[in-house]
Amino acid sequence: MKIKIIAGLFIFAAVFCFASCGSKRNQTKTEKLEPLTIDIPDKRQDGSLTMVDTEGNNYLQFDGIIHIKNDGSNGEPIKIVVYQNEAENYEFN
């Protein structure tokens, strides 16, 4: 009985020793991570605004520079301004 206990402890110690030696080798290898860069393109200001009637037909369509003054996320009414047929070099203040 004593021999089985001593043999079991010896096997446990050997397995523990091999397992810890293997993990030390992995700890010495460090990988250098590259920094993450996220490119977000500038928002576009040109586009079109289409008004549709109750039957699904196009009622009016405006093409030009679009400015969203308020998108309604703050609880206030939505306000969108469309500058129709503006030049491409138009700058909004």
Structural summary, described in words:
The chain is α+β, with helices and mostly antiparallel strands and 93 residues long. 29% of the residues lie in helices and 28% in strands. The protein contains 1 helix and 3 strands. It has a 3-stranded antiparallel β-sheet, with no helix packed on it. The radius of gyration is 35 Å and the shape is rod-shaped.
* Percent of residues in helices: 25-40%
* End-to-end CA span: 91 Å
Envelope shape: rod-shaped
Strand order of the largest sheet: 1-2-3
Could you name the ranges where pLDDT drops below 50 across 5 or more consecutive residues? none
Q: How confident overall, as mean pLDDT? A: 77
How do the SSEs run, as a string of H and E?
HEEE
Strand content: 25-35%
Number of helices: 1
Q: Structural class from helices and strands?
A: alpha+beta
Report Rg.
35 Å
Give the beta-strand count.
Answer: 3
Biggest sheet record: 3 strands, antiparallel
Topology:
Layout: H1 2-28, E1 46-52, E2 58-70, E3 79-84
Antiparallel strand pairs: 1-2, 2-3
